[in-house]
Amino acid sequence: MNEPSQIFGDPKQGLRDILARIIGDFDSKSGAFAGLKYNSPWILATEDWAERSGHTVEELREMISQWRISIYSGAQKNPKIIQIFEDLRNAAEEWRTETAYVDQPFHFDPEKARFPNRKELKAHTLKAWSYLGLAKQWHSYDAKDLSFSGIFEDRFGHDVRFSMTFKLGYGGPIRLFIQFPYYSDGEPRSLDLFTLSGKFVCKDLRLPEEAELEWIVGKSKTNFEDVDGVLAITRAILSYLRPTIQ
Fold this sequence. Notes:
Layout (H helix, E strand, L loop, with lengths): L10 H18 L18 H7 L3 H17 L5 H21 L18 H13 L5 E7 L2 E9 L5 E9 L6 E6 L10 E3 H4 L2 H6 L20 H17 L5
Antiparallel strand pairs: 1-2, 2-3, 3-4, 4-5
């Protein structure tokens, strides 16, 4: 259960603590994320990568979580976590050399950028967006980016802006971005789905691409499974950030 709203302490540190809890619960699929259908970034911590890097699966999982917590909170990375990260990245580079693996380059496919269900997609998402209880909300369509945005006040009194965007021109990957009112290095500035999902750390570690850590808008006019999945994650995140005493 979330703690009562605490605006009287250090809001910056309070936000750091909440972001760490969000990442920990997201990775372990506990708290507000329990029961949601998605793949944890911990799927990157396989027995094979543990053996190649000289660490245990549990150590790799801890590194995957703590690395992202440091990115979000602005806190210094633990030297142990840095060493595990470097060991796994070196193992991934060696594997790439052994297997001649290369990342697939992006090729623009006009057919993948066609979404005949855009009208239905917009209506479905707008309806769900309206139930989030935002102080302000709006949507836009620009350069084939269909975006839904809003503002809410978090439990520390920050005005927080966030948006969910469907990159239709690139085949429909879904992006979620939450912006806090901090802008300097070392401060908790933002939270985004690319980093939360593990796609960012997967790329940083030079591991092979993992499609299971991404949500893609479908072309069905009646089934919006991945959109609903990100909306469920959004509601879970909001439950940590919002005041629990109104």
